[in-house]
Model the fold of this input.
Amino acid sequence: MNDNFHTKPHTRRFFSILGLLCTLLVLVVLVAEVGTALLMSFETAPNVFNTPVGIFILTPGVRVVFRLSGVGSLAYYLFLLSCVVISFSIILGKMLDGFEITDGKPRWTTLARSPLTDVAGLAAVVLFLNYLIVAVMMALGNAPSAPESLSELAGWKLGFVLIEASVWEEILCRVCFMGLPLLVIAVASGERENLGRFVVGGFEYNNYVLLFLVISSAIFGYAHYGGWGLWKILPTFIFGLAAGWLFHRHGLYAAIMLHFFIDFMSLESVLGLDSSVVPLTTLPLIFVGLIFTSRIALIALQRAFGERSEERLEPGL
Done:
């Protein structure tokens, strides 16, 4: 199809503007979330110091292997919080690096290729698909529910759990089940240069990347079965694909930011927002997710049936 709608300049501009607005919205929310996490640390840190913390691995179910207490618990929490702050600093720095001023005017479209744009686009897609799955289940008379234990947690402990999930789960699933197997394959193939990229992320694509992307996402999905039930496997598998792609494309910091953003968005009490305020951020992202998901599906179908398209499959710009 020579006159492909997705190759027209006005269509590309539409997606560029939509992606930019989505990126700016996610940036504002991320600033609020990181600020909230830092403010909560004044309450969380002393409580963590006085509370034993279990360190878990995925086998693929969740298994606590040992516990920390006192200084160990506090050091673990500060490590997790530092990873969130550092990841946010990296993604913000890379966004600002892409900002250009030409002829005295800012070129906002130069932000289109920043990692934050990909995080924002994938966050919108993940949120849309998650709500779609929930809506379908409710229509079928099988409304999903969150674990009761979450609603019973104190505010500081809930904040700790969310930060731990954002960092530790990404290290386990993306680094251990995706990066390290790729590292072993690279070493076995005789590669000796820049091997650290498989640990921190940001490496080239090949069939092995696709294989371990799917495997790590499946493990991530199954890990949520015990606490959430069968319904949670599919949405967390989809999230795993998004986070794994960010790990491959940009690095661990981008996967952590996606996880942190989604988790803090899903629980109103952590953000300290009234229930009437939260939809002001979630609903626009769900709408953008619908558009981006439709775009990805259309481009994928065009490629599957042999139609040439220069568009990227990811929901970025």
Summary: Residues 5-304 form one domain. The chain is about 70% helix and 5% strand. The two ends are 22 Å apart (CA to CA).
